[in-house]
Amino acid sequence: MPDSTSDQPGSALGTQFVERSLDLTGKLYQKSVYPAVLDVAHGRRLSSPLVVDLDPTTVCDLACPECISSQVLHHGQIGQDRIVRLAHELADSQVRAVILIGGGEPLLHRSVGRIIEVLHEAGIRIGLVTNGTQIHRHLDRLAGMLSWVRVSVDAADPDTYQAFRPSRGKRSAFPQVIENMRLLAARKKGRLGYSFLLMQRFDDDGKVTDSNYHEVYRAGVLAREIGCDYFEVKAMLDEDHYTVNQRPEDIEEVEDQIARLRALEDDSFHILHSSNWQAVRTGADPVQPKDYRTCAVAELRTTVTPTGVYVCPYHRGNPKGRIGDIQDTGFAELWSAADTSVIDPSADCRFVCARHATNQEIELLAQRPEPAVLVEDFDLFI
């Protein structure tokens, strides 16, 4: 795989790199990605997806009341021997990038270190979404082998963290998480992100009883202080992945804090909006109509979990979106037999989907007679 420094998110590429990494349609035109995208645009199947979301385990050491994955938690893990074999199978495929995610907390799987080593040795880019509690146990590998690590923190102090991200013990895990991030920031080769999910709780009369909205600015300042490359604000979704519209005064409170954080941006630290917060802040309809019946991105990305392989993370745990079981089937065999068209986006994906624009772009490719203008690889996490 090409060893491009621009594919290493820790390099000091400033605003231009951040904007490109958020440009999901632009990523389709990378030289090593476009041929597969064009095949998909013309209805051809790939020998493997380009990106795999991999849930090693459904076990988590936190007990977050608002966890959107609560329905799929604590249903076991991919066996230790099986997941190492899977890593080798991915290494032998055309997979270009793997995101260790969940479901549960991926760093709780006992074989996660070996998984990272196998994928890294094969030249596969690796990303990690984690709650951060176990970073210190895998510091060398995370610092040296990952393209990026995103930590879900959602708070700026221990009390708020314990309210929204309670540990299974009595003490808040916040100090450990922040120290882990500080340790990783000092040694990382890739990019480190501080993720902040906006959350509120209401009583029966609709009055806010608990919130982390007021901590956006302080959390962003903390993210910069401990050495993160970016701070990302995300909107809360309901259990069906629909954005939850906010009161104007609450949007204003968050936007004011984000505006203050903009003053802290430089070539090494950036403030990001997730696509769902963009939808909420602009008052977009939570229902996003789609006029296509198959998801092209489902052929480019897939989600592997202990309970099955699914077309995408939005449909993790949804029987309709299940396309196989990795526990007793090799990856190549599973993918060859998989039907990635089982989900009809026009009916099954009416929420705001981060890959909607990508699907629309791919649909247009087959209709364009002129050759595309391609760019050097800059981010394989399409």
From TrEMBL:
InterPro entries: Aldolase_TIM, Radical_SAM_PqqE_MftC-like, rSAM, rSAM_sf. GO terms for molecular function: catalytic activity; iron-sulfur cluster binding; metal ion binding. Keywords: Iron, Iron-sulfur, Metal-binding, S-adenosyl-L-methionine. PROSITE patterns: RADICAL_SAM (PS51918). Residues 46-274 form the Radical SAM core domain. This is Radical SAM protein.
